[in-house]
């Protein structure tokens, strides 16, 4: 049974965490449009896949589009809670060239935190 995709944005320690949940398919297109980085934001964006059960090829295309928008805005992109299966797929399609995959949020913060010279968020 398909699970509706949704996301929740959380500003935490100088980074935007996008908490993803459900199945990432073409049906999530409208939700992905809402995940544009705010104007002026160059702070890192971390995609949290803890709640994701399934990603198909259309979902990969949506992820690629999101990563492109983030990078075009100057936002470094990371991912956490990515299963071994999806790590392999990210590698196969080349997404790991644009997204740094971390073992957990602590590792993402260590590398991407603003104290380490990464982006800003306009208030």
UniProtKB/TrEMBL annotation:
UniProt feature coiled coil, ranges: none
GO molecular function: anti-sigma factor antagonist activity
A Pfam family the protein falls into: STAS_2
Domain STAS, first and last residues per copy: 5-112
Protein name, per record: STAS domain-containing protein
Species in which this protein is naturally found: Pelotomaculum isophthalicicum JI
